[in-house]
């Protein structure tokens, strides 16, 4: 069913292990936010996703931490296309910003719903290597891109 999914493509590569661990750390931060409703972990997630959404993984503190941890655990790298990771980071950034806006406006329920859904997507990506961003891209972006080429 998912074998024909089209993801964004680029010539840039990133280490999948580092990317997945970065998303895992962000998922943990979001879980901390959901349990405590303290906005600081959510601010950290928003900043980190914002940095990565614009393709600046080298400046992401959580990505740097993940790189150190992954490199100390294993020397094997699994290079994958960077474009799907950037697209997923952009979607994550939108969710994180919405969560921050809602919590800042006192809309706790709306914030927890958005961040809970975002956390599920982050766990799917980091633990199960299942990127919902590619499904979204395939369904909502690619059909319009394909029409422009005709």
Report what the structure shows.
This protein has 6 helices and 2 strands, in the order βαααβααα. The protein is mainly alpha-helical and 150 residues long. It has one domain. The chain has a two-stranded antiparallel sheet. It is globular and about 45 Å long.
In the residues, how many domains can be counted?
A: 1
CA radius of gyration: 16 Å
Mean pLDDT: 88
Order of helices and strands: EHHHEHHH
What spatial order of strands do you see in the largest sheet?
1-2
Strand fraction: under 5%
How many helical elements? 6
Assign the structural class, choosing from mainly alpha, mainly beta, alpha/beta, alpha+beta, or little secondary structure: mainly alpha
* Contiguous runs where pLDDT drops below 50 for at least 5 residues: none
Overall geometric form = globular
CA-to-CA gap between the ends?
26 Å
Largest sheet properties:
2 strands, antiparallel
Query: Helical content, roughly?
Result: over 70%
Instruction: Let me know the number of strands.
Output: 2
Keywords:
single chain, 150 residues, mainly alpha, 4% strand
Short description:
The protein is mainly α. Helix content is 73%, strand content 4%. It has helices spanning 16-36, 40-53, 61-73, 82-104, 108-128, 132-149, and strands spanning 13-15, 79-81.
Topology readout:
Layout: E1 13-15, H1 16-36, H2 40-53, H3 61-73, E2 79-81, H4 82-104, H5 108-128, H6 132-149
Antiparallel strand pairs: 1-2
Helix pairs in contact: 1-2, 1-3, 1-5, 2-4, 4-5, 4-6
């Amino acid at each position: 069913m998912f074998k024909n999914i089209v993801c964004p493509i680029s010539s840039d590569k990133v280490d999948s292990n580092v990317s997945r661990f970065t998303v895992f750390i962000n998922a943990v931060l979001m879980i901390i936010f959901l349990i405590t409703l303290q906005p600081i972990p959510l601010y950290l997630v928003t900043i980190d996703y914002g940095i990565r959404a614009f393709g600046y993984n080298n400046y992401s503190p959580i990505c740097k931490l993940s790189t150190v941890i992954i490199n100390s655990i294993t020397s094997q790298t699994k290079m994958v296309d960077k474009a799907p990771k950037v697209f997923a980071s952009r979607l994550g950034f939108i969710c994180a910003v919405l969560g921050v806006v809602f919590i800042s406006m006192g809309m706790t329920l709306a914030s927890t719903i958005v961040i809970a859904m975002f956390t599920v997507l982050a766990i799917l990506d980091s633990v199960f290597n299942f990127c919902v961003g590619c499904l979204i891209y395939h369904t909502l972006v690619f059909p319009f891109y394909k029409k422009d080429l005709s």
